[in-house]
Amino acid sequence: MPKFRGIVTSQLTDSDAVLSAGGRQCAFRFAPDEATDVARLIGDLHVGGLTPEELATRSPRIADKIPPLLADFNVLRLLIESDPRRAAVATNGAQLYRDIRRIADRTAARSARSAFLRAPVEQRATRRQLIGYALEYYWIVRAAPGLIGPALGWAASPAERTLLQDFLKSELGHDRFLEASLKAVGLGDAEIEQHQPLPATFSLAAALGVHARQHPLSFKASLFLFEHAQPAFIDAFDARCVALGMPEAFYRPLRAHADLNDTYRHEDISRQLMALDTAIDPEACTVTKRNVSLMVETLVRQEHTILAYYADDSAPLPRIFH
User: Fold this and answer.
1) Range 2-81: architecture per CATH
2) Mean pLDDT of 253-272
3) Interval 149-208: pLDDT, tens
4) How many other β-carbons are positioned within 10 Å of the β-carbon of residue 114?
5) How many helices (DSSP H) and strands (DSSP E) are in the chain?
6) CA pair distance 207, 301, nearest whole angstrom
7) What are the b/e assignments for 276-309, b being 16+ CB within 10 Å?
8) Rounded Cα gap, residues 218 and 88, in angstroms
9) Looking at residue 5, what is its pLDDT?
10) In angstroms, what CA-CA distances link 148 with 38, 174, 205?
11) What is the dihedral of CA 78, 80, 82, 87, to 10 degrees?
12) Fewer CB atoms < 10 Å away: N or C end of the chain?
């Protein structure tokens, strides 16, 4: 029983129909003598509760055109299922979180994530690559409060608002740790400020910011990816810095920042926020799982990009282009 989503609006003339849903539009033309049936079909789809066969019976002049129209509407994500008997059982946030953790682990394994972990462990990471990692990490940490802040606007309960506020407060000022690291290897304030992140780094921040404004569930589900502890990586990073003779003032602040995340149990933020959602429809679950998978794949791509870009001695470090 197809039905238009709540955000779909329609405009009809004697021979044209325009359907809008957010920034998406679908337009089609019809013969003047089909106008009444088209208007009836559009009205029925706004209400829902009718099968495709019933829709065709109610609009006989366009009966043969209804199946392809419905197929096109579905491809454009204008439709939902309105038959309560066919609607799948809702999932709670705790279960969705467990599903997403498994999906993230599988996606990371499939993409062979750990390229940056292997580099210092195998003594292959160069001084430039370690500094490059710190620069990209710094850029995300500095951007974090601005990305998280808009999420407060959709907090659905006092408990959710408190969690988000506390998380935001705990993220403030963390960039100072990493700024100190970068200064320890000779980068000045202007260089740090003007650094342009790699495309993959920018994509991660942009995706999180978009989710914070447009898809709260994906935002909540993605946070753990940025906050989970990686003690093996931190140990390997420190050891490689020591082997390369890099100053302790460079790598110690990175460990201090990781310790802060562990102290405040930042990795739990996704679980805590999602536990407040008691009923999530199947479509929202699917969209969220897809978005988290894309985020994991982007994190993997970022690791490879950092290693590749900063291995090039001719590439700007930091990335400043005039």
Assistant:
1) Alpha-Beta Complex (3.90)
2) 78
3) 999 989 989 999 999 999 999 888 888 889 999 999 999 999 999 999 999 999 999 999
4) 16
5) 15, 5
6) 14
7) bbeebeeebbeebbebbbebbbbbbbbbebbbeb
8) 20
9) 87
10) 44, 14, 10
11) 180
12) C
pLDDT band at 96; cut points 50, 70, 90: very high
Q: What's the fold here for domain 93-310? A: Heme Oxygenase; Chain A (1.20.910)
Average pLDDT, rounded, for the chain: 89
Q: Note the pLDDT tens digit of each residue in 275-313.
A: 999 989 888 899 999 999 999 999 989 999 999 999 999
Q: How many CB atoms lie within 10 A of CB 67?
A: 13
In angstroms, the CA 80 to CA 3 distance is 5
pLDDT (average), residues 260-283? 82
CATH 1.20.910.10 in the chain is located at 93-310
Structure tokens at 157: 């309960």
Omega cis (within 30) before 318? yes
Element (H, E) at 280: none
pLDDT value at residue 281: 85
Query: Is residue 123 exposed (0-12), middle (13-18) or buried (19+ Cβ within 10 Å)?
Result: exposed
CATH 3.90.930 maps onto the chain at 2-81
Cα end-to-end distance, the chain, whole Å: 57
Q: Are 247 and 185 in contact (CB under 8 A)?
A: yes
What is the reported pTM?
0.74
Q: Angle at CA 228, nearest 5°, toward 202 and 182?
A: 55
Look-up of token digits 């320890």: 184
Q: Which amino acid is at 119?
A: A
Map tokens 């003032």 to a residue. Answer: 249
d(CA 79, CA 46): 9
Query: What residue type is assigned to position 46 of the chain?
Result: H
Quote the crossing angle between the two packed helices 199-214 and 127-148, to the nearest 10°. 20
DSSP β-ladder status, 16-21 and 8-12: antiparallel
